[in-house]
Automatic annotation (TrEMBL):
The gene is ftsY. Its EC number is 3.6.5.4. Belongs to the GTP-binding SRP family. FtsY subfamily. Pfam families: SRP54 (PF00448), SRP54_N (PF02881). This is Signal recognition particle receptor FtsY. Residues 91-102, 113-123 have a biased composition (Low complexity). GO terms for biological process: SRP-dependent cotranslational protein targeting to membrane. Part of the signal recognition particle protein translocation system, which is composed of SRP and FtsY.
Length: 471
C-alpha cells in the first residue's frame, strides 16, 4: 500500500544524505588543509627562532670581549721613553695602575653585577675630566645595546604572533559559513544549510505532486521539513538518514493527523442510538463500506441496523439486502423512489425500540455538482440530525477524491472519511491530503473485498510504514 510514495520519500532521504556526505567531506578536507598550514607555520617559526638564536650568540661573543685587556695591549705596544727619570715615574704609575686593575678584577670575580663595581673603581683612578667624558659616552652606548637586544629578542616573536592573529581574523570575517562548518566538524557536528536542501526539496515537491498530493499540502510539508532541518546542528552519530527521517515523519504526521479523534470512544460515550450517514459519489464503495462497518462494530460489542437511503438507484435494495443476509443484520428499506430521509428516520425509530446501538444509513451516490441530490442530503441532516456523516471515496482517485471531499464537506459538513481500495493505491496522495484540506480526519481504510478488510486509520502507523526501510 502506497509503495510508490514510499519509494519517493526514500529517494529524498538518499538525496539529502548524499548532499550531507559531500558537505562533510569538504569540511574534513578544509580541516586537514588548516592543520597542514598550521604545521608549516610552526616549522617556519622554528627556523626563524634558530636563526635569531645564532645571531644573538654572535652578538653576545662580541660584547663579552674584555675592553681592559685591549687597553693593556695598546699600552704595552707604546715605545719606551729614553730618560731614566721618566722611566721611574712611569714604573711607579704602572705599578699603581696594575694594583688598581688587580683590585677591580678581584671585585669582578666576587660580585655578579660587574658594571657597577667597575664604575666605582674607575671613579677612584680617573680624573674628573676623564670621568665627565666617560659618563657622557657610556650611558648612550649602554642604552643602544639594550635597544638592540630588545629589538632582537621580542619584536620578532610579537610580529609573528600578531601576523597569525590578523590572518585568522581575516579568514573568519571573509568566510563565516566555512568557519562554522569547520568548527562543527571539529566538534563532531554537521550544520544543514538551505542550499544543501534546495535540490532535494525541489525533487521531493515534484514527487509529491506526481503522487497526487494536493499542492497546498505539499508546500506545507516542504515548509515543515525546512523548519526541522535548516540551521540544525546534529551529532554525526545521529546519521543524516535519521535526521531526514525525523523531518519527514514530522511533516507527514502534521498533514495526515489533522482532526483525528478516537472513533470507538466517541461511539461509546454518545447517546444511543448513534446515527451515522454515508455519502459520496457513485460506485466508490459506500454500500460495501456499510457492510464492513457492521462487522467492525460487532467486534467492538456494538449492535447495528442498516438503512437503505439510496432510493434512486435500481438494484440498490437488492445489493444492501444481500450484505444484510450474509451478516445476519437487520435492514430497513422502502420502495424505489421513496424519500431517503423517511427511510433513515424509520431505522432510527427501530433502533430505539429494539435497543440497537448504531444506525448505518446509506445514501444515493451523487456528484458534488448535483444540486438536487445535495439538497436531499441537507434534508436528511435536518430530519435525522445524524451524529456523524462519513465521506466515502476511493484512495486511487487521488486529487479528485481530495476535491470531492472538500465539496461534500461544504454541503453536508462531514466528520471524517473512509478511503476504499487503499490496497490498490501506490501513490497515497488522497490519504495524505484529505485531512489537511477538509480539516476532517480519515477514519478507515478499505483494504480488500472481505467484510474484515477495513482497518482503523492510524496516522502514526502509516507514516512509520511509509518511512520504513525497503526490504
Amino acid at each position: 500500500m502506497f509503495d510508490g510514495l514510499k519509494k519517493k520519500l526514500n529517494s529524498f532521504r538518499e538525496d539529502v544524505e548524499e548532499t550531507a556526505e559531500e558537505k562533510a567531506e569538504e569540511a574534513e578536507e578544509a580541516e586537514r588543509a588548516k592543520k597542514a598550514d598550521a604545521v608549516d607555520a610552526a616549522e617556519t617559526g622554528e627556523a626563524v627562532d634558530e636563526t635569531d638564536s645564532a645571531d644573538t650568540a654572535s652578538d653576545t661573543d662580541a660584547v663579552d670581549a674584555d675592553p681592559v685587556a685591549e687597553q693593556e695591549a695598546d699600552s704595552t705596544a707604546e715605545p719606551e721613553p729614553d730618560t731614566a727619570d721618566v722611566e721611574d715615574g712611569v714604573s711607579a704609575e704602572s705599578d699603581a695602575a696594575a694594583s688598581t686593575e688587580t683590585l677591580v678584577d678581584e671585585e669582578r670575580d666576587v660580585e655578579s653585577a660587574a658594571e657597577p663595581a667597575e664604575a666605582v673603581a674607575s671613579a677612584q683612578d680617573t680624573s674628573p675630566e676623564e670621568l665627565d667624558d666617560s659618563e657622557a659616552s657610556e650611558p648612550s652606548e649602554t642604552s643602544a645595546d639594550a635597544d638592540d637586544e630588545e629589538e632582537n629578542e621580542i619584536p620578532e616573536f610579537a610580529r609573528r604572533h600578531s601576523s597569525s592573529d590578523d590572518g585568522e581574523t581575516d579568514e573568519k570575517q571573509s568566510s563565516t559559513s566555512r568557519w562554522q562548518q569547520m568548527k562543527s566538524m571539529a566538534t563532531g557536528r554537521i550544520i544543514i544549510e538551505e542550499e544543501d536542501l534546495e535540490g532535494p526539496l525541489w525533487t521531493l515537491e515534484m514527487a509529491l505532486l506526481e503522487s497526487d498530493v494536493e499542492m497546498n499540502v505539499a508546500e506545507r510539508m516542504l515548509d515543515t521539513i525546512r523548519d526541522s532541518m535548516i540551521g540544525e546542528s546534529r551529532k554525526q552519530v545521529d546519521t543524516t538518514a535519521e535526521l531526514v527521517q525525523e523531518a519527514l515523519y514530522d511533516a507527514l504526521l502534521d498533514v495526515i493527523s489533522v482532526g483525528q479523534f478516537d472513533f470507538d470512544e466517541r461511539l461509546r460515550q454518545a447517546d444511543k442510538p448513534v446515527v451515522i450517514i454515508f455519502t459520496g459519489v457513485n460506485g466508490v464503495g459506500k454500500t460495501t463500506s456499510i457492510a464492513k462497518m457492521t462487522e467492525y462494530l460487532e467486534k467492538q460489542g456494538l449492535s447495528s441496523v442498516m438503512a437503505n437511503g439510496d432510493t434512486y438507484r435500481a438494484g440498490a435494495n437488492e445489493q444492501i439486502r444481500k450484505h444484510a443476509e450474509n451478516l445476519d443484520r437487520k435492514l430497513i428499506a422502502h420502495e424505489q423512489g421513496g424519500d431517503p430521509a423517511a427511510v433513515i428516520y424509520d431505522a432510527v425509530e427501530y433502533a430505539e425500540a429494539h435497543d440497537i446501538d448504531v444506525v448505518l444509513g446509506d445514501t444515493a451516490g451523487r456528484l458534488h455538482t448535483s444540486n438536487d441530490l445535495m439538497a436531499q442530503l441537507e434534508k436528511i441532516n435536518r430530519v435525522v440530525e445524524p451524529d456523524m456523516t462519513l465521506f466515502v471515496d476511493e484512495a486511487v482517485a487521488g486529487q479528485d477524491a481530495v476535491q470531492r471531499a472538500k465539496k461534500f464537506d461544504e454541503a453536508a459538513e462531514i466528520d471524517g472519511a473512509i478511503l476504499t481500495k487503499a490496497d490498490a493505491d501506490s501513490q497515497g496522495g488522497a490519504a495524505i491530503s484529505i485531512a489537511y484540506v477538509t480539516g476532517k480526519p480519515i477514519l478507515f481504510l478499505g483494504t480488500g473485498q472481505g467484510y474484515d478488510d477495513m482497518e482503523r486509520f492510524d496516522p502514526e502507523e502509516l507514516v512509520s510504514s511509509l518511512l520504513a526501510d525497503e526490504e
